[in-house]
């Protein structure tokens, strides 16, 4: 994996199209190391305007007008998870296919009278137009108009060929491939772990502990999919790596935790009381108490810690003695391990399988396991792999292009 310095005026635009969140980064060919993240999203919530990614969500009103990302009011029935609808049902695990979230996505897709390709194309158009406006403000109209576009879109490594073709059709619908006076726009697909590896390897190359012959597993744990790709370092100067064993992956990303968490809450409250909770209230509950609170913070390192969640007003009293007052539920670390363990155990199996392939080929384990992606920031996932694998586990905690 090496990089060639382009000569022409190019704007390289990378689109990380995720199951739950999506983002865009770009660079100008004459300043390839100056990578810019697109932010400044239109938002209903003030704290979401300048973050690295926007929700992969759409809302169609009765007149078929579309809002997207953070601009969707919290109470609206947003269409989510539509990335996975590009797959045939036979290629989706049964438990995921039957999940509340995917059933709701199919119902909203049917109500919109559109197919999955059209919906993905609509979302890509929204995020693309936002990105072009952001680039316009940064470089000016003259440079924007004279520069060809080279667009790189990430896709799960495990996706079949037909899904790649559907994604290409969605990209065409989005307008990103429309004719421009300066020349044809080039579109390429890159596997999500390969894209993550490009950024990660650049950082690793600067470390004094890295040497020729070292191997590493890149584990890209996103919202829907977890993809793995492994590399061996072929040369230090120039720094060159090569894929060393066949990649792997599965549908076991962070969204699967949501289903387990809701099931946990339903077990904790009195029988039937969750039936009073509307879909909008459930979404707000997940967003406030789970997605931005427990889910990113939980680690089993402190077994004595408890977590408080505020139940929706429409939920009845809890049957659990740990309920504080009437609307606050106390969860133990053991409760939350029951949410994380089934999903994280699948990821551990994938990593272990990848490491075994490296051992078979090189006679030694991988030196590093590198966690990237949204779910890759999970403290629980990090601790689990660090305690069970021989390799050093590295985890990105910040935001990078």
UniProtKB/TrEMBL annotation:
Keyword Cytoplasm in annotation: no
Keyword Nucleotide-binding appears in the UniProt entry: yes
One GO molecular-function entry: ATP binding
Domain of life: Eukaryota
Record key words, sorted: ATP-binding, Nucleotide-binding
Entry protein name: Hsp70 protein
Organism lineage string: Eukaryota, Fungi, Dikarya, Ascomycota, Pezizomycotina
